[in-house]
């Protein structure tokens, strides 16, 4: 149970909020815009839709001025909007319109690195003696060959292209700068207090403008290991560079920096904060950031579930099963309850493939049932819920028949280039590389939103070419069709999400703040758990993560009053309330206990 002295169940607005992530390039283009890119005015035009779904907070991926080397995660000006999205005035209007609907805007704070076009870096790279030289991480070559070829300072691999070095050589000054993601994204030097002061200024700017808080991009990478040692060799001999995560994930000064951020900025506002923290799974280390008294962050994105099939690098595969998935979810539900921390609940974002394709069966026969199964699970887990655009209608991964040129993401492009270089004469390895793209590319989450069955799926004007190809199934899988769906016996995916979010808010004491007890840790395919409020109200969640008919025995001590919900039918479902319960393939049910 939740300890009496714990603040876990203490209500806060940001704990109960439903956050909807928008990928601005792909959400909604405004009429008359021929670029094929989404816009801020397009977002504003869809606020009534988001409100009707049950959304409280809109988080947009970056809309700030950027050359778009990594779709806006390479920022050239933290206080100006990229013209392709609109203007500061458009953001002011968006915030005002959100406020009218009792909704809020969360900004995406990208301060591990900037764009190489940011004035700070332009000045830093001008000369070794530049006043801003120390704003970035510059190092001399490890060595220079007799032919004059410099060697990077260490063997760290680039995160979005592990065939390349994480260091970029600047011929003008004869030094390398650290660029963990791409050469266009130089890492800021957080050791420099002037850098930290400049970041605090950016945060104050957006809070004063009306933002409610920040999602902080790879915030746990801001402190690097002293001396920048070589990474361990874990990739096959064909790789010159190696993943260096242990040398920059949750580095030695991370918590100093986060506590300073809290003192200088966050403590002065009633904020929502969520840190993106890949590569860390240690319970105590995470609780240092999200414990109730940590004075760092409200919550973080824990990557264990979305990295369930990741070995040493993201663009690779390893086997997993439902028991793995269950153990991850249960672990973090219990850790936060027992240690007075707080979870974020998510299985999709702009950096991961579609959940219905990844964790279930996205075939035409099962896609809708599986999307609703995942919705039932997420809306009944403790923590702050994050929904990614299109997840609410069950958008799936791009077809395997798409040509490789349809994929636009820098990570996919770099990965395929590596495959072609390393395996040019090995059709089997090339096919495996394409399989990884079909399963894991970030592009799958970035296809334009499917609003209706009209030309361009309602994303942009007819006759305008979208920046990325729209999914081929948009005529049958789209918002309009699902909102209007009137099947008397079954909910569309959207309507199921709508009802599930409404139930979550009505019973926040159970689903947001309640205790969590897993009931099936050893079952290979069924995930069942109980949620119990501090007042003793108890609900039972039973999820069949398989394409098989199964039976599940209601445990002793549980008296089911009614099965209030199923992803197969509208309303309550007629199933036995004790003894054995039959479950259809991919069926999820929700029971109210006496």
Describe this structure in words.
By secondary structure, this protein is an alpha/beta fold. 27% of the residues lie in helices and 17% in strands. The longest helix has 18 residues, at 322-339. It starts with 12 loop residues before the first helix and ends with a strand. The mean pLDDT is 97.
Number of strands: 24
SSE class? alpha/beta
| Rg over CA atoms | 24 Å
- Strand percent estimate: 15-25%
**Order of strands across the main sheet:** 15-14-13-5-2-1-17-16
pLDDT average, as an integer?
97
The stretches of 5 or more residues where confidence is low (pLDDT under 50) are none
How many helices? The count is 17
- Helical content band: 25-40%
Describe the global form.
globular
Largest sheet: 8 strands, parallel
Give the end-to-end Cα distance, rounded to a whole number of Å.
18 Å
Question: Which descriptors apply to this entry?
Answer:
single chain, 594 residues, alpha/beta, 8-stranded parallel β-sheet, 17 helices, globular
């Amino acid at each position: 149970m939740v300890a009496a002295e714990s603040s876990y169940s203490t209500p806060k607005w940001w704990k109960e909020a439903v956050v909807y992530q928008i990928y601005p390039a792909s959400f909604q283009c405004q009429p008359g815009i021929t670029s094929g890119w989404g816009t801020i005015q397009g977002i504003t035009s869809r606020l009534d839709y988001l409100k009707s779904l049950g959304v409280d907070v809109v988080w947009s991926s970056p809309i700030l001025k950027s050359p778009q080397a990594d779709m806006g995660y390479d920022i050239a000006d933290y206080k100006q909007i990229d013209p392709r999205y609109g203007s500061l005035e458009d953001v002011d209007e968006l915030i005002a319109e959100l406020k009218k609907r009792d909704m809020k805007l969360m900004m995406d704070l990208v301060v591990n690195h900037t764009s190489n076009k940011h004035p700070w870096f332009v000045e830093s790279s001008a000369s070794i003696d530049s006043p801003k030289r120390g704003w970035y991480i510059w190092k001399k070559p490890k060595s220079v060959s007799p032919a004059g070829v410099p060697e990077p300072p260490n063997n760290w691999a680039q995160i979005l292209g592990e065939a390349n070095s994480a260091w970029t050589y600047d011929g003008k000054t004869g030094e390398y700068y650290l660029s963990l993601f791409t050469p266009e994204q130089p890492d800021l030097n957080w050791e420099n207090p002037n850098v930290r002061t400049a970041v605090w200024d950016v945060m104050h700017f957006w809070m004063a403008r009306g933002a409610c808080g920040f999602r902080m991009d790879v915030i746990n990478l801001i402190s690097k290991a002293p001396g920048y040692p070589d990474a361990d060799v874990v990739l096959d001999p064909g790789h010159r560079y190696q993943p260096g995560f242990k040398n920059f994930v949750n580095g030695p000064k991370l918590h100093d920096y986060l506590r300073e951020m809290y003192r200088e900025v966050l403590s002065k506002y009633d904020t929502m904060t969520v840190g993106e923290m890949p590569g860390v799974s240690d319970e105590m280390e995470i609780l240092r950031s999200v414990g109730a008294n940590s004075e760092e962050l409200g919550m973080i994105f824990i990557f264990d579930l979305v990295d369930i099939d990741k070995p040493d690098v993201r663009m690779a595969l390893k086997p997993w099963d439902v028991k793995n998935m269950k153990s991850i979810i249960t672990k973090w539900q219990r850790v936060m309850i027992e240690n007075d921390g707080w979870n974020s609940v998510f299985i999709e974002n702009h950096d991961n493939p579609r959940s219905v394709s990844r964790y279930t069966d996205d075939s035409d026969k099962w896609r809708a049932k599986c999307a609703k199964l995942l919705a039932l699970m997420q809306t009944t887990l403790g923590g702050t819920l994050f929904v990614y655009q299109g997840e609410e209608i069950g958008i799936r991964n791009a077809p395997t028949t798409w040509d490789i040129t349809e994929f636009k993401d820098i990570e996919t492009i770099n990965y395929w280039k590596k495959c072609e270089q390393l395996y040019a004469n090995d059709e089997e390895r090339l096919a495996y590389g394409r399989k990884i793209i079909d399963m894991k590319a970030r592009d799958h989450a970035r296809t334009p939103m499917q609003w209706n069955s009209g030309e361009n799926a309602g994303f942009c004007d007819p006759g305008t070419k979208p920046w990325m190809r729209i999914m081929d199934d948009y005529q049958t899988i789209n918002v309009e069709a699902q909102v209007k769906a009137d099947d008397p016996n079954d909910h569309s995916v959207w309507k199921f999400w709508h009802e599930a979010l409404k139930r979550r808010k009505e019973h926040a004491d159970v689903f947001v703040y309640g205790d969590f007890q897993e009931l099936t840790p050893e079952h290979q395919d069924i995930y069942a758990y109980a949620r119990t409020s501090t007042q003793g109200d108890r609900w039972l969640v039973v999820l069949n993560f398989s394409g098989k008919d199964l039976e599940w025995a209601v445990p002793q001590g549980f008296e089911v009053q009614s099965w209030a919900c199923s992803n197969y039918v509208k309303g309550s479902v007629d199933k036995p309330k004790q003894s054995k319960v039959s479950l259809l393939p991919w069926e999820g049910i929700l029971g109210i206990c006496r």
